[in-house]
Amino acid sequence: MDIEETKTMFRFKQFTIEQDRCAMKVGTDGVLLGAWVALQTSDRRLLDVGTGTGVIALMLAQRAPQAEVTAIDIDGECTVQARGNADRSAWSDRITVCCTPVQEYRPDRPFDLLVSNPPYYDRSLLPPDAGRTTARHTVLLDSAELLAAADRLLTPEGRLAVILPPPEAERFRAQAAGRFVVQRWTEVWTTPRSGVRRCLLELVRERAAAMAAAPAADRLIIEEAPNHFTEEYKRLTRDFYLKF
Length: 244
Hints:
The chain is of the alpha/beta class. It has one domain (9-237): Vaccinia Virus protein VP39 (Rossmann fold, 3-Layer(aba) Sandwich). It is 27% helix and 28% strand. The strands form three sheets. It has an eight-stranded mixed sheet with strand order 5-4-3-6-7-9-8-10, sandwiched between helices. A two-stranded antiparallel ribbon has the order 1-2. The radius of gyration is 17 Å and the shape is globular.
């Protein structure tokens, strides 16, 4: 457990997340995605799908002062808590929180970026807790539905960013074929010997992609040894974590 974290609260440098009403607490996956995704000065509308506590939405608001951020989730308790977390931040006027399935979400304008820390486990071996099942399994949102939502909700030049374990990342990329292609791919290793634990992917529509070969995956190692974090990981997350 990180020193900033308790069961009910996680404190960052510029905001605090209360999390007692959400099944999935603040974790490394969400923080990695919120810090890693590329943001452009032209981005004006950002969408966080499956926002949970709202941590990624708040990170995006911190990083992109020119943008409005919308955070959606199907869990009513999470959206209430995410709204409260946003209200206590310096960016409350730029964050909108909605309780709605992304499959039914119909905004009046498209988005420049869709970010999601999506459910990724198979329906077998479901955990007993209903909240964790919703948050971490493809019961209510599978990859095909997320890709369809991105196709519908993004501008022609819009980007889609996700974090997934390696097998799910490969399947996601295969399912995206014909609509989206990967333009950034980072393999996350816990230690130099751990192997790939997560993949960070940023995709664009095929017709918007540059006529170039698919990018080679780069590597992000979190720790050289227990509690000895790499300089690359510190640089990526130091605007957020108190310990850096």
